[in-house]
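[User]
If only I could read backbone structure tokens as easily as an amino acid sequence. I have put the entry right below:
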Amino acid sequence: MTDAPGAGDPGVPAALSAGSAEPWRAPVAAGALEAVVELPGSKSLSARALLLAAIADAPTMLTGLLRSRDTELMLTALSVLGARFKDLDETGTHLRVTPAPLPLHVQTGPDGLGRIDVGLAGTVMRFVPALAALADAPVVFDGDEAARRRPMAPLLDALAALGAEVTHLGEPGFLPFRVGPGDGALLRAEGARVAVDGSASSQFVSALLLLGALLPGGLELTPTGPVPSLTHVAMTVATLRERGIAVDEPAPGAGDGERTWRVHPGRPRGGQVAIEPDLSNAGPFLAAALVAGGRVSVPRWPAASTQAGDAWRDLLPRLGGEVTLADGTLTARGTGRLTGLAADLSDVGELAPTVAALATLAGAQGHTSALTGIAHLRGHETDRLAALATQIRLLGGDAEETTDGLIIRPAPLHGAALRSYADHRMATFAAIIGLSVEGVSLDDVECTSKTLPGFTDLWAAMLATATATTTAGQGGTGVAAGSSRGPVTPGDGA
């Protein structure tokens, strides 16, 4: 088993998710932007909607579904557990879901095993094993090489404590592993209770909450320590309630180890479900307005949302932008002048790479930023803290990895050959930097298909709206003028 990547090497997967043959040259913004960007559905909401539809009491009609590598992996995984899916139009965003019966009937191979490839999708590797504990045959889970470095022990330990049969097929606590077949104990469990260490990922908490409704007595869940990205837990609770499942939340002010969620039993309702656009994926496009100047608008922005990306309304003004929401459209405006910030991102960790990109460009303008509360990013698609610090330093920036975050200090920037580590948010980090720093290239921009298929086309269309009248310091950061214009030599990223 490969050890988890350390601070000096975020790790390089054996095979990239989509395998770009040639490095992608990040385009520099020619001037101020005037763009409207239509974004596909939320990855996080799509994953939850698919899973709840797969175990619902009646068929579900989904609209606005994201079709990306992550959702395709989720569709395949839930099909192995007996759910059925039918596209209702050529876009694939309108889907009919026929739920699986209970106990879940596994589609097995000749060896009597169901097999699920999680790829590098956190929602598949964390949410689906909990469901597999209710299946009528054993299911083997495995994924990309980088997925084998992502922690799984808290969830697997919790499932075992509930009575599931878990067999480690490699290093304990990591992929690959087998779930089931148990003796049906979970489907007979009354008043089930479990504790889980959620400090590495809120997905462990969400996975058990999603499972809890299917247990005959529901589930009482207590995380033993701090839970990062609580917005994602709130999203899970909201989606359960929208589907008719009662959830009791912790008392206000409850401390770590004292917060308890109780999920009441029941099959989620089927029916019509519309999925919001992905507000986290909106971040790089909105950030572009701050870097290049001008404005970028994202339609269909909800008035209120449990998505972490709704925090852009607060974060972008702290980085030097202006944000307005009117008639369902969120617009970010900028001048190219950025500011540093000190921000606790513990509840919105998935936004950290985009915030770090803006903070790095702000550093080129003389500002210091401190990002905290994101130690859990070490267990994402790659060790994102190590990856961000490494890539910032490759660009000439000054980045220090701390216990739970990053400090980014003033430093001039130059072009560099950056690596994505098969991580979609590291890829968009590079794209943002490239808006004002010439000579930025990326080894695998196609890994953005994990959550945002067609990213490069959307990015190019946005940049095509730029006016060429902006001068450095007005509509751009002014970094590009002093950056490298020559051929980019690949670096080792370390």
